[in-house]
Design goal:
Elements lengths: L20 H23 L10 H6 L6 H22 L10 H10 L2 H14 L4 E8 L2 E8 L10 E7 L6 H4 L3 H8 L5 H9 L3
Antiparallel strand pairs: 1-2, 1-3
Helix pairs in contact: 1-3
This protein binds manganese (III) ion.
Amino acid sequence: MKHTLPKLNYGYNALEPFIDAKTMEIHHTKHHQAYVDKLNVALESHKNLQQLSVEELISNLNTLPEEIRTAVRNNGGGHLNHSFFWSLLKKDIQFKGKIKEAIEKKFKNFEEFKKKFTEAAMNRFGSGWVWLVKKGKGIEIVSTLNQDSPVSEGMKPLLCIDLWEHSYYLKYQNRRNEYIETFFNIINWEQVNKNLAGGK
Ligand code: MN3
């Protein structure tokens, strides 16, 4: 089974003016596609691993043959992280439901959550991601380097922001702070609620 680039269920311009169409198109068709392609190359001579989903691969990195472990970690991680990220983006979705309750329980209120998430994203040195994850019975903010995923650590992602410059540089250049601020306008809280409700 070859891994394939998932189609977006919205247009590249759907997140304008917060994320511009050109950035979305390049991010999806070039960056994400490259992770998919390189993952397939890494698995070419490992027929048994081709049956596994990318989530299964990333959940069990330590069981993979050493010669492809880094390639799968980076490119499988890139594929998994981006597929998840695309599902989280939508304009004009109200913050409500169980995720609202969980965030208010953990962080007191939305503003405090936003502040902590923003701090984590600003402090992510270099390329990586910041996540809201379910861990045990609670939720917490974690940060990963490069294309590492909290899935590898047994955590269940609820929400994430891509902090690689390719996700914002065309429109925001070095202003990561503006990109992070704008991200709060395009969170699909309906999907985050689904992620919270889903297994594990
Ligand atoms: Mn990216």
